[in-house]
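Batch manifest line 479
LIGAND: cytidine-5'-triphosphate
JOB: complex structure
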Amino acid sequence: MASLTIRKLDDAVKTYLRLRSAKNHRSVEEEVRVILRELIEGREEPLTPFSAPPTPSATATPQRIGALPEASVTLIIGGGIAAYKSLDLIRRLKERRIEVRCVLTKAAQQFVTPLAVSALSHERVYTDLFDPQSEFDAGHIRLARECDLIVVAPATADLMAKMANGHADDLASAILLATNRKILLAPAMNPLMWNNAATRRNVTQLQRDGVVLIGPNSGEMAEAGEAGVGRMSEAIEIATAAERLLRPPMPKPLAGKRVLITAGPTHEPIDPVRYIANRSSGKQGFAIAAAAQAAGAEVILVSGPVDLGDPAGVTVKHVESARQMLEQVQAALPADIAIFAAAVADWRVANEGEQKLKKTAGSMPPLQLVENPDILATISRLADKRPPLVIGFAAETEHLIDNAKTKLARKGCDWIVANDVSPATGVMGGDRNTVHLISRKDGEIAVDSWPVMTKEQVAIELVAHIAKSATGKSLEPAS
Ligand code: CTP
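JOB STATUS: finished
ARTIFACT:
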């Protein structure tokens, strides 16, 4: 198969590739592979990395909203007997959905082979600063920057000395000098080396430079009869430390709050095999449930029929019709916050057939529609169990803000998240949303317009506003 030389591509294509690969935390090579695969599968994206992503095909497996985001690590394996533990570390990182690209120092290759490392990481392994294959597009810079974190395990006394003094005479030290990413070191050396004044100085310097250390632990050394501080941390400890740096624990401003959410469409039966439905995918409501759960809330999600996996840690009640949805919502009260993101069918068939309706020559079945209960309005008007904060959605195709303001008054809720769902926006079933938060406080109505965002971002933003309003606390990690 012909190999591709990035340098020979047009500047516009190169820029596109670099932006797109950086955005997706992939190398340029990997991004090219993904693009080719998408082309072959007929899922070509428009030539801008920041436009709306393609809608998943109908046969795609259900998405898991609230799953861990992807992350990537450049793992530098230094030359020490502890290098064998790095093989396990690769597995531990990968099982946490962290992609790993490995660099082996010359000395590391005495302890583990590039073949073993490559087999475990499912990636090629980098060993040489002057490797023409990876340096054709400044490979050491990519390894230094196209990742979220650099882990050095084992970090030998020599590697740490090089780092502390800014040396760059091999691939590992060049990456460590060229990176603007956080660095996690797992030192491993003989206790005498660890306690040596030079190493102590280097450790202090590295910590001052913002490098994070895990271990070393104390215990027996590989050298017979020696023990002390110098053993590399176990793979699982290093993977946990890496994950904490990659995915810092979210603050839990909604801890102790009970949040009730509706999502998805409803199906209103016509007869045992037919129903009235709408195009809602449930993605927005599910994303809000995941974001509220991540913010520490106890979340009850009442969902109509959707093709999505249940968000982790959320109690999900699956329903079909509007009346079932209302029943489950009432059963879930009391709640501190209620968010009605479902696209509830306004009408149902009055005379639902007990048997499948048959075609009769020349006449249409007499479908009589009656109005469904308005769940949002019902809960907003409760005298006793009304949640202190009730939020509705307004799906509009015209006069967005005016219609949403009218809806806010008509439904009696506190906030309305208004979104334009006209077919051209691709919101219904799509992954992005442009919303306006309309709130009512002390008789005043405020409109806050947000830029176009993914549904996950809208969810996080909404939960941040809720946290601020309900508790005065922020979603931002404390710095
Ligand atoms: N809603 C509800 N129960 C219904 C209808 C709507 O709880 N029977 C909620 C939705 O979950 C949403 C809000 O009311 O939070 C507005 O829904 P929308 O479909 O935009 O408005 P409708 O009330 O259906 O009015 P219209 O279709 O005329 O725009």
